[in-house]
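Fold this complex.
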Amino acid sequence: MSGENDTALREFVTTRLPQLRRSAFLMCGDWRMATELTRATLARLVADRRRDAVADPDVYVYADLMEACRRRNRRREHVFVASPGAAGVEAESILLLDVLHKLTPRCRAVLVLRYWDGFEVDATGAMLDLDDDRVIAYERAGLTALEKMLGESEEALAG
Amino acid sequence: MSTPLNRLLEHVLEGEPPLGDEVDAVFRRADRLRRRRGHLVLAAGVATAGLIVSLGYVLTTTLLPSPPAGPVATAAPGAEVVAVTPPPTPSMRPLPTPSRADSVLAVIEPLVEGRGLTVVPGSAERGDGWRRYGIAGSDGRARGSIEVGIFDVRKKWCFPVAADPDACARADSTEGVESVRYDDVSDPDRQVRQTIARRLDDNRVVAVMASGTARRKPALTGAQVEQVATDERIFDAFRKPENCNDGCPEFGTPVSDRLTRSPETD
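Structure:
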């Protein structure tokens, strides 16, 4: 996107914003915070892109967003915050978010990037500053833990 | 997991709030960010410049030698005059305690100022057993210099006679100090008024010389030069081991090479 004008930047922001906000929500469990973090990340992208300081916008925004979520999550005690005026959220969704947030932030970020955003192992590694083996290891450990905790939670709900 | 994870995650996202004007908000925030960064860069530049200036000042004041302190003309009455730091003259050897008060200047300065002249600030030079002060008139023009030296002499040393190197001069004696005046104003280009004095209980001799320059009279009269030379504070201003040596001024009538002779009338 080198040399592109604000129109191309606006188009990039418009297309990526919804998906980025959902990824942020999966990471932090709070729509308001997800919106704020996404806006801040994209604003930094726009500012840096205007001075040609960004090589790959996708890597830039996801790396920045995941780091921002990781930092913000350190201070959080609650897990899930619904958006104001939203309809009731299913118990399974809350359960999944709860289980997802019991994973380490980096493990959660690998699962979100790989299974929600659909990035390949190398792209995920580039966004999280991990080599491929570490991404695969996080992914395997995350899936195993997720499956185990979901099974236990479902049993508890059924019981 | 029987259901793929991405399908499970889709359900979690139900109840997603609308985006609204989020894209515009992103660009407004980007503009604010750019302005803030500009201010930060400016502030960092100003801070860096300030730091460099401060650092330069600190280094300059700590590493470079301080300029010579001129005579303290504004000192309160009775206050001790601050010592004059010697400028870097190659032939000069610094005193062990250069910062102590300059008692020689304390004697000379009132007499100089009484004649409407000034000791030029920063002109003072000093070495082992000698002091030199530049004098200027009220118009700022040079009026020669005043030089003071102290010499360690043998007990039977006698006062020289300017016209006869083998003779001894008869000295005037006042309150334990004997002295001889050697004024020579015959040469308009080098008018000299000098007194050599010896304290009776001391093996040291003081020579004080006021010399004019460029057809201008010396800064002190012959009587004033004698007054300075016989002032005990001048003897006390020099420490015992001091002896007019390296860089010693060239007095009109030399002192140090006198031999023991019988006194005669000058």
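Residues 22-63 of chain B form the longest helix (42 residues).
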